Amino acid sequence: MARFLFALLLTISCGWPLIGCGDENNCTPNARTICKDGVTYWADSCGKQGDKAGDCECGCNAYFTACKTPCCLATPDCGNRECGLDPVCGTMSCGTCSEPTPDCNDQGQCESEANPKLEYFHVGTTSDTPVLADMAELPETDRISIDFGLVDAGTVNQRYLFLRNSGQGSLELLSLVPDPAISPDFFLGCRVDHGPFATDCALSIIPGSDLVIEVIYAPTEAGADSGSFTLSFNVNEHQTVIVDLLGEAVTPEIQVCFADCVGAESDPACAGADELCNGQVDRDQFVLAFGDADMENSIERVVTVRNSGQRALDVRGVVLGGYNSQFSVDLSGSGIPGDSPAK
Questions:
Q1: Which of 11, 137, 193, 236 keeps 20 to 30 A from 143, CA to CA?
Q2: What range does the domain containing 268 cover?
Q3: Side-chain half-sphere of 292: how many Cα atoms within 13 Å?
Q4: Do 328 and 310 lie in a common domain?
Q5: Which tens digit of pLDDT belongs to each residue from 67-122?
Q6: Has residue 25 been placed in a domain?
Q7: Are 104 and 174 contained in the same domain?
Q8: Against a cut of 0.85, is the pTM above it?
Q9: What CA dihedral angle connects 25, 30, 33 and 38, to 10 degrees?
Q10: CB-count burial class (<10 Å; 0-12, 13-18, 19+) for 37
């Protein structure tokens, strides 16, 4: 018993841990810290207290060597958690779950196996139900973008957003709220699986089924359009999903040109002539003039069609209207029918 007391007293006199312990003139300064009454002090290797090191927000730790960290308060800091351990210290309970929601999920929310779950989405150009392999996980940001890209003004374009109930309970669409600044060129409808689309979107989606949001973009004039709408659900994760909408309407721009001359393309007058294009003169002055031709001889002229717009131009053919049999069109080597890329 005496030997044990002697060893213990020796440890206290030299300090803990034993760093450079020995002659007090050979102690290492500021070798460690000690904590008293919520204040830390420097101590040398022999245990002698020195200057103040700092204040402790939550008092000293159990060994009185430093501040307590993290700050574990008498009341657990649970935030919005209703079950499981507190996220700060991980030692105190935020509560327990009971029937009818006996399970505590990773977010500290009570749920049962019969709860709905929103995990996957898909955006497509058709209303055909996608297979799970074609769907993506909802992002943590709870934000989805539907971009129509460039479309022709005056056309109607559709996109379909699928949101699947992968849980065991009924998924309720509580609300669909368009942003007040949404472009009037966007129209919204919704349905469950293959039912009819409607503008009343208070729907219930059974497990394994899809909520389908139809987004119609019908721009009447050229220009960029944008907007968003917010979906609200009865789930713990992804309670609100924001859908951003983007699109830009363009008008097809076609330029038709030929040499501003009278006669054949090979005539000197045409070879050095300037181009005459639609838009430069009135329609009744936009005339391809062949001039006089000898019988049994032909006169050839070249007409150039250019795509000066922002979208690919699909040229399917050339039709001569109001003409007699003396005129014909040679499309060999012209690339028609075919696509002309945007400028």
A1: 193
A2: 252-343
A3: 1
A4: yes
A5: 877 666 667 778 788 888 877 666 678 888 877 667 787 778 887 667 899 999 99
A6: yes
A7: no
A8: no
A9: 100
A10: exposed
